[in-house]
Amino acid sequence: MHSGAALDTVVTAETPEGILLELRPAGLTVRFYAFVLDWIIRLAVLYSAAIAAAVMRGLGMAFFLILLFALEWLYPVIFELTPSGATPGKRAFGLKVVMDNGLPVTAAASMTRNLLRAADFLPFLYGFAIVSILLRRDCKRLGDIAAGTIVVHERRPATRTALEHVDPVAPARALAPRDQAAVIALASRAPTLTAERLDELAALAATVSGDDGRAGPDVTRRVLGVAQWLLGKR
Amino acid sequence: MMTPLRFEQTYADDWAELERLVDAALGRKTGAGPAVRRAESGARLAALYRRACEHLALARARAYPPYIVDRLEGVTSAAHQLIYQQHEFGAARLKQILAVDFPRSVRHHRGYVAVAAATFLVPTIVIALLVYWRPELILSVVSSETAAQFEEMYSSSAESIGRTRNATTDWMMFGYYIRNNIGVAFQCFAGGLFAGLGSLFFLAYNGAFSGALAGYLTERGLSSTFYSFIATHSAFELTAIVLSGAAGLRLGHAVLAPGRATRGQSLVAAAREATVLIYGVTAMLLVAAAVEAFWSSAQWLPPGLKYSVAAVCWTAVLAYLSLQGRRAG
């Protein structure tokens, strides 16, 4: 899981218990989609408010202008301080805003990151924000850097490995912990791979079941059987 | 020998209980039995959380299958958020900020406030004198139509001071001032991120513009309406703009001279301090918008009364910023 560190953008945050929490920063594209969705929502609210304001004249205009202010500056703050920690747009794409240490975003941090939007927007159309998100491994815009926040993908629980139908096979040789982990990881990815690709990958690991140099569905079943054995089914 | 499956069988009950408690605390539907009492469940949750942390460390070190590690990561990170989250907003916190933290923070940052005030006031005075001396210079700041509009807005025959004839009610102007002025203040703050240059620019720009307007209208003999208009709300508005500029300069200084911290750490610390200023600035600008819309613009109030109230407001604001919250622990 940690072997891909050089390629992966995972950011770790340490808890007081010494556990490293893994945060997965959200990149430019998904944040752009979320932004567009939020923008459409705000536009729809403004549009209906404009109709109401036109009927109510002066007081309506005041209401409209204050709403304009609130949607411009406070809309993200208010939604980020809800338990979901995300605007409706972000929530729709499974994103949320958290502090660098993985905790829910604080009021001060949310204010900071959203007021600094004005700086991110420069020189035009969020130019600095885009450059900053593209350049940084943790995909922060300027407001995130100053506030100590990070936009992350919400965690999606991994599904349990479905290996019930495979008979356990004792490994042909003693396996180092690294090798054990690789075989188990292969088994958990099995449901997401095509049968041919799974056979190819299993052929690479065939030494664990003593099938060196051979390939095919039978070898695959035996390699997965070793994984089953390693998991504890004897 | 402890295999992944045995590990899971041994501790799954703990994990499930922790998951139930987390869900209950977050107000999610659990479908389990009656809700446990809060204090008890809190202590239990903390104990289970620590145990799950140990299990996660073991599972990672022994490279157990991803579904076990993921389950533990999910439940520990949710419990971690519950246990360590800070509640820093609410009425009590707001009162603390306005009664103690904000004025104290202004005094703490007096150097930045002085620089921001000078950056705003020097262009104001210089440009005002220039335009007073040579009124045609106003045309290098605004177009001739805008200049004529200003004259109309502040003429003694205007229904309400400070607005064009077709701008309708006090309420509408209240909304306009909120959107416009608070936006300007936020810009002054955000501009500070660029080594403070943005804050300096917006301060000087707004100062120069106000100066040009003041010089021009004074030269036109409209000083009584103009100054009686701006006297009261400027106590809140100009101070707030200067303070937001000061907050921006704090950010800029942190970026330029981070001291012994990294630039990032220094910026985060500066932003945390500056936010307190921004809370206060926002409150002051809300007051300013209300005063400007409902009091300053009233043509029927005698200028003498307006100047007296303005003097009270200026004294109150300056006293608040320099004295409030000195005694509090």
Question: Any overview of this molecule?
Answer:
- The complex is a heterodimer of chains A (234) and B (329).
- Chain A is mainly alpha-helical.
- Chain A has two domains: 11-153, no CATH class; 177-231, no CATH class.
- Chain A has nine helices and four strands; from the N terminus they run ββααβααααβααα.
- A two-stranded antiparallel ribbon of chain A has the order 1-2. In chain A, strands 3-4 form a two-stranded antiparallel sheet.
- In chain A, a hairpin with a 5-residue loop joins β1 and β2.
- By secondary structure, chain B is mostly helical.
- Chain B has two domains: 4-84, no CATH class; 91-323, no CATH class.
- Helix content of chain B is 76%, strand content 0%.
- Chain B is built from eleven helices and no strands.
- Chain B has helices at 4-25, 38-61, 66-84, 91-108, 110-133, 144-153, 170-190, 197-219, 223-256, 263-296, 303-323.
- In chain B, α1 packs antiparallel against α2, α7 (170-190) packs across α8 and α8 packs antiparallel against α9.
- The longest helix of chain B has 34 residues, at 223-256.
- The radius of gyration of chain B is 29 Å and the shape is elongated.
- The model of chain B is unreliable at 29-36 (pLDDT under 50).
- Chains A and B meet through α1, α3, α4, α6 and α7 of A and α1, α2, α3, α7 and α10 of B.
Summarize, please:
The complex is a heterodimer of chains A (234) and B (329). With 234 residues, chain A is mainly alpha-helical.
